[in-house]
Amino acid sequence: MMPSTTNPQLNRNGELTHLLSIEGLPRAVLENVLSTADAFAGVGDREVKKVPLLRGKSVFNLFFENSTRTRTTFEIAAKRLSADVINLNINASSTAKGESLLDTVDNLAAMQADLFVVRHASSGAPHLIASHLDRIGAHHIHVVNAGDGRHAHPTQGLLDMYTIRHYKKDFSQLTVAIVGDILHSRVARSDIHALTTLGCPEVRVIGPRTLLPAHVEGMGVKVFHDMAAGLRDVDVVIMLRLQNERMRGALLPSPQEFFKTYGLSPEKLAHAKPDAIVMHPGPMNRGVEIDSSVADGGQAVILPQVTFGIAVRMAVLSIVAGSGR
Ligand code: CP
Known about the structure:
Blueprint: H1 27-40, E1 58-63, H2 69-80, E2 84-88, H3 101-109, E3 115-120, H4 125-135, E4 142-148, H5 154-168, E5 175-179, H6 186-197, E6 202-206, E7 222-224, H7 227-231, E8 236-239, H8 255-262, H9 266-269, E9 277-279, H10 292-295, H11 302-321
Parallel strand pairs: 1-2, 1-3, 3-4, 5-6, 5-8, 6-7, 8-9
Helix pairs in contact: 1-5, 1-11, 2-11, 5-6, 5-11
This protein binds phosphoric acid mono(formamide)ester.
Phosphoric acid mono(formamide)ester (CP) is lined by residues 67-70, 147, 156, 281-283.
């Protein structure tokens, strides 16, 4: 691997030492996460014991924003790697009394943390923590972004790639459509960067003009505003939640109107290839972006995505913890 001097996620040997964003990561780094996850896929099943790769290490889950899937699967992943896991209860922590993010980090670093898994409503918060740790010389502490604002959700992107590769084997012939609120979606950004890096030849985004970022074509995607045209002959459909908490002003007439035009119903899904898979990062809003008959139907792989997230997060934790700086 080529040495990196510019990407703060890579050490001088080009190895992943923090995971902050998929943007700018070399294809080999992404492929290494996916192949490492293969090795972990069975760990924790009844017949496979935990592995000791993170024994003696402390993983701190710092979730400043709500989560069901990401927080829990990071905890399971860290425990299967034999780490000690500390889930900071943000509402009951000194953050609620006005302590700054970096003061909280300094105090947790003083408790001999080895890894911070960070979710934050502000884009760039994990990056800020990683730079701060470098500045104070805490080079042994690694940071994994568990979702920051509308910027990035790299482990979701990686587990989505793992899911697609599991069902479709190879990215080189695929057409993938990402549908809905692209503007506010960190998952969309991470998926687009991952798909284009892994060689997917056609990535489409489908949504109303008000929910697409300006100049999104610059990310290497084709833009559609019509579901029938955008879903035609696709192999993979990734539905997104309307991120109401990040919307400013009225970007939509109503959720019912959105569902009529962009909600994934069986009729709209029929435009995709017959063996197309349907994905959703969760949490789902049934009847807003997806019809229950599709969410629970034979083409949906939404719950397998969650399960694959454990192996992928084991891979990420073990890779970054195993890297020096
Ligand atoms: N996909 C995802 O990030 O879900 P949570 O918000 O439940 O973690």
